[in-house]
Design a protein that fits this description.
Blueprint (H helix, E strand, L loop, with lengths): L1 E3 L15 E7 L9 H25 L2 E6 L6 H11 L1 H12 L3 E2 L5 H16 L4 H29 L5 E6 L11 E6 L2 H34 L6
Parallel strand pairs: 1-6, 2-5, 2-6, 3-4, 3-5
Helix pairs in contact: 1-6, 2-3, 4-5
Length: 227
């Protein structure tokens, strides 16, 4: 069951006493080569996530377990993996671990590697529909197994009346146990980023159409050489 963040501030912390709680944060990645406007939105997003998480934990209980997509190790080794992947989420995870939370190994390394291999095959494209269907099916199987493993880790480590934070990509297909209260942390900056990305895609598409039209006009205006 998911609870929108806007409704979290109404109930008292006692309303969730004895319940397992999972705070879901969507992963957003900044890049040095990305436009400054994009990276600014990333910074604003993570600042708002941090603020809303603190308010949420103050209401329903602090997180004592941390789960992060693509992390198959615990402790310092796991923190090092996160730091290389996403410095923004690393800052939040490392601070909570310093306060006593435990970073869990969410992934099974072989399953994650298998899924990555199938993804690379799919990106290459196929000449045979039979092979495309086969790879797509194997990818789906690996993805399902990976998701099931992650949920099993959460279910087996998140105890009664405990809270956890899950850092995961948008569009994940995790099916959480019904006795876990799931809170999605979705600050306004996430919607702002989605709008900005859509606008950039539309601008790129319009620019491409204009360039194609210009090329057609140039071809039409070019003199035809006589044989």
């Amino acid at each position: 069951m998911s609870e929108p963040l806007a409704r979290v501030e109404k109930p008292a912390a006692g309303s969730f006493s004895g319940h397992r709680k999972l705070f879901v944060v969507f992963l957003v990645y900044s890049h040095e080569s990305a436009p400054a406007e994009y990276n600014e939105r990333c910074e604003r997003y993570w600042a708002q996530v941090d603020e809303q998480l603190l308010k949420l934990e103050a209401k329903v209980g602090a997180a004592v377990h941390v789960y992060h997509e693509s992390v198959h190790e615990t402790g310092d080794s796991g923190l090092s993996l996160i730091e290389r992947m996403n410095p923004s989420s690393h800052r939040m995870v490392s601070r909570r671990c310093a306060e006593g939370a435990r970073l869990e190994a969410l992934e099974e390394q072989e399953l994650a590697a298998e899924l990555g291999d199938w993804e690379r095959f799919m990106m290459l494209g196929f000449g045979s529909q039979k092979v495309a269907d086969l790879v797509s099916d194997l990818y789906s199987q690996a993805s399902r197994k990976r998701n099931e493993h992650a949920v099993e880790v959460i279910d087996s480590t998140l105890g009664e009346d405990e809270g956890g934070i899950l850092f995961v990509r948008e569009g994940h297909r995790y099916q959480f146990p019904q006795d876990i209260e799931v809170f999605s942390v979705v600050p306004p900056a996430l919607d702002e980023m989605h709008r900005w990305l859509r606008d950039q895609a539309q601008l790129a598409a319009t620019s491409g159409d204009d360039e194609a039209g210009k090329e057609e006009e140039d071809e039409a205006a070019s003199p035809v050489e006589e044989a």
